[in-house]
Write a structure and sequence with these properties.
alpha/beta; Rossmann fold; 12 helices; disordered C terminus; O-methyltransferase activity; transferase; methyltransferase
């Protein structure tokens, strides 16, 4: 509890830089390289969870909510995935473990130090070319979007799965940027973490306003990562084809 409270006191630094500010992210990479079996994604995930419980709390999706992420990726069977907010690479490990062998994941991270930590951990896990990290943001005047298009094959209707787990204020603007690019197709899934803590009310309201017409959203009740007393929500939203509401659609019903 005390560790969690100390981290919450550093939320301003997290919002500005994407790191807690005490060196725990670099220490995590060293810990993984020292304790996890090389080339074993499952063991790397286990070691990260152990570090978060026993050494220093992390702001990745965590083990409880990670199961929701795993299940959503399995349902989507994606070939092209986008992650907004790499942090230390934990959620990308989970996605890489369950996505189809031919799938590719591009993870966008604002903080260069986080991107470096994630790459060290992925290299140790043996992910190879399945996962790429891009230092940037979708809101950087089109630079990162252009790289996704020209270097990673993003285009109209090609994006199957999006995991949103970065700065809460950017959730809705970045979703709108993705829609403006027309990357999604009917049936694409967007999973968004931290709907209660710290919360993204504009994003949640946007999806609720379009429920059954443009989106079908399921709200998963869960907890903030690595503890069981602070509640959180994860939103799983399916992008609907035109006319899906009239025909009944195929996505999950709201919880």
């Amino acid at each position: 509890m005390a560790k969690r409270l100390r981290m919450l006191m550093r939320m301003g630094n997290l919002t500005r830089t994407g790191q807690v500010g005490d060196g725990r992210e670099e220490a995590l990479a060293d810990y993984v390289l020292s304790h996890a079996a090389p080339g074993d994604v499952d063991d790397v995930i286990r070691v990260i969870d152990t570090y978060a419980y026993q050494q220093a709390t992390l702001i990745n999706v965590g083990d409880e909510k990670g199961l929701l992420l795993d299940a959503a990726v399995r349902r989507a069977k994606p070939r092209l995935l986008l992650e907004l907010g790499t942090y230390c690479g934990y959620s990308a490990l989970r996605m890489a473990r369950v996505m189809p062998p031919e799938a590719r994941l591009c993870s966008v991270e604002l903080n260069a130090a986080n991107a470096s930590v994630a790459q060290r951990i992925w290299d140790h896990a043996g992910l190879g070319d399945q996962v790429r990290v891009l230092h940037g943001t979708l809101g950087d005047d089109g630079r990162t979007i252009e790289r996704l298009v020209t270097e990673h094959g993003f285009g109209a209707g090609r994006l199957d799965f999006v995991f949103v787990d970065h700065i809460a204020q950017a959730y809705l603007p970045d979703l709108q940027r993705i829609l403006d690019q027309r990357w999604l197709h009917p049936g694409s899934i967007v999973l968004a973490d931290n709907m209660k803590v710290p919360g993204a009310p504009r994003y949640r309201a946007y999806l609720r306003e379009r429920e059954g017409t443009e989106w079908r959203t399921r709200e998963h009740r869960t907890h903030v990562e690595y503890q069981s007393w602070v509640k959180d929500l994860v939103l799983e939203s399916e992008y609907l084809p035109s006319g899906a509401a009239a025909s009944g659609g195929t996505g999950p019903a709201p919880a």
